[in-house]
Amino acid sequence: MKVVTLGTGGAIPTVKRALPATALIREGKMFLFDCGEGTQLQMRRAGIGFGRLATIFISHLHGDHLAGLPGLLMTMSLLSRDKPLQIIGPPGLKRFVKVTKETFRFHSEYELTVQEIEGGRVDQGPGYLVEACPMDHSIFALGYALVEEDRPGEFDLKRALKLGVPEGPLFGQLQRGKSVSLADGRVIQPHLVLGRSRKGRKFVHALDTRPCPAVVGLAEDADLLVHDAMFAQEMAEDARQMGHSTASGAARVAKEAGVRQLLLSHISQRYKDEQVLLQEAQLVFPQTVVARDLMSVQVPLRR
Ligand SMILES: [Zn+2]
Ligand SMILES: [Zn+2]
């Protein structure tokens, strides 16, 4: 699983920080979380093609999180995309896509579905599911968690051979957690040759939001949390009023949720040097990084 931060600014784009968009690439499939203005160019800069894109999750209907959608959809149409694409987000998203298509008069040859949701399990595929929950922003905004299924434990080849399982397809069945019958009539249960199951990975996207219990719940035990950190402590009151989080607020959420790594994002243009954000957050939660545009973060499998 690889996460690429395409846009890490907030509200107003700068030369250094594009508007919010984060790509997650997993087993050949790409997911996009938010689609700020210029996302398609950032994807090109990051060297990630449009073909693998399966689903776009939109957090909320503030322009800085979805103004990149019209251009991206049109480009995929011009490139004769034929794979289906789904867009998932809050109520109002269908109207936005409909008006976009009508105004720009483009017709998607590819199957384009828009799903309006308010929370719960919103998507699933082989080995993963995506959950959403309302957060605490100035308008209705959704946080998303992509959660992988647990993986079977490591296969003990020596033990399997010792038990008399012949090399071949029976190995695969045991690895997939199925019991197998041997020629001599014995039945071998998978737990005899598999180690403890390995927990799946979890990625959480929480923009824009104040620090809130809903995100702590959503991000519980996550491997990677991308969280709103628009301001430093000196702007705490503005953050609260505008529905955003400070760097230390994001760090408190990460600490309470027990995440492995925190990526601060949606950084205000006022911070030319992000050290202040990093220092404030690391006082609370040391495993913090300030996201930069086009950063690639590997999320390793758990042991
Ligand atoms: Zn925003
Ligand atoms: Zn917003």
Can you offer a commentary on this structure?
The protein has 303 residues and is α/β, with parallel strands linked by helices. It folds into two domains: 2-151 and 198-298, 4-Layer Sandwich (Metallo-beta-lactamase, Chain A); 157-192, no CATH class. Helix content is 26%, strand content 26%. The chain contains ten helices and 16 strands. The strands form three sheets. Strands 6-5-4-3-2-1-16 form a seven-stranded mixed β-sheet, with helices on one face. It has a seven-stranded mixed β-sheet with strand order 7-8-9-12-13-14-15. It has a two-stranded antiparallel ribbon with strand order 10-11. Helix 4 (93-103) links the parallel strand 5 (85-89) and strand 6 (112-116). The model has no long low-confidence stretch (mean pLDDT 95).
List keywords for this structure.
alpha/beta, 26% helix, 26% strand, Metallo-beta-lactamase, Chain A, 7-stranded mixed sheet, 303 residues
Say which molecules are bound, naming each kind only once.
Answer: zinc ion
Distance between the termini: 15 Å
Q: If you consult CATH, what is the topology of the largest domain?
A: Metallo-beta-lactamase, Chain A
Q: What's the helical proportion of residues?
A: 25-40%
Query: What structural category characterises the helix and strand content?
Result: alpha/beta
> At CATH's second level, what is the architecture of the largest domain?
4-Layer Sandwich
Whole-number average pLDDT?
95
Q: How many beta-strand runs?
A: 16
- In total, the number of domains comes to 2
Order of helices and strands: EEEHEHHEHEEEEHHEEEHEHHEHEE
Beta-strand share of residues:
25-35%
C-alpha geometry:
globular
Contiguous runs where pLDDT drops below 50 for at least 5 residues = none
Backbone CA Rg: 22 Å
Which superfamily, in CATH terms, is the homologous superfamily of the largest domain?
A: Ribonuclease Z/Hydroxyacylglutathione hydrolase-like
Sheet with the most strands, sense and barrel status: 7 strands, mixed
